Amino acid sequence: MIEESRVWVVDWGWPAQGAGWVDAAFMVIRLVGAGHPPQLAEQWAAGLACWAGVTDDGLSAFASHVAGLWSVRAMQAGTRAAQNRAAMARRYAIWRLSGPAADRTAWSGR
Q1: Which domain holds residue 35?
Q2: pTM for this prediction
């Protein structure tokens, strides 16, 4: 959809309004799934303008939510692709909640 001064792109598979960094966070999960260390995947995202608005607590909450959602969907679908998506999301969430990222987020209020 195009307006005079902007273009709107809609993901019809999952239309929603959210924080500007959400798409980049999904890409971070995909990078982790492709074998990149979570810290390096986040460093890549930090180079994006949209990442400036992300907070550690918000990102940890997002990672936990996606890991849970994709795990439920994997149990329902039973496909290898769904199981792989769930596993990559869980890997990232575990890193966020127990790895170096956890030290930054623990009750930080950020």
Answers
A1: 22-47+54-101
A2: 0.78
